[in-house]
Amino acid sequence: MHKYYMETYDLLYDKEENLFARDTRFVWNGTADDRKAGNGQKIFWSRGNGWVIGGLALMLEEMPKNYEHRNFYVNLFKEMAAKIKKIQPKDGLWRVSLLEPEAWPHGETSGSGFYTFALAWGINNGILDKGEYAGTVKKAWKALTEIQQADGKVTWVQNIGYDPKPASADSWQNFGTGAFLMAGSEVRKMK
Question: Closest Cα partner for 116 from 60, 59, 46, 62?
Answer without folding.
Answer: 46
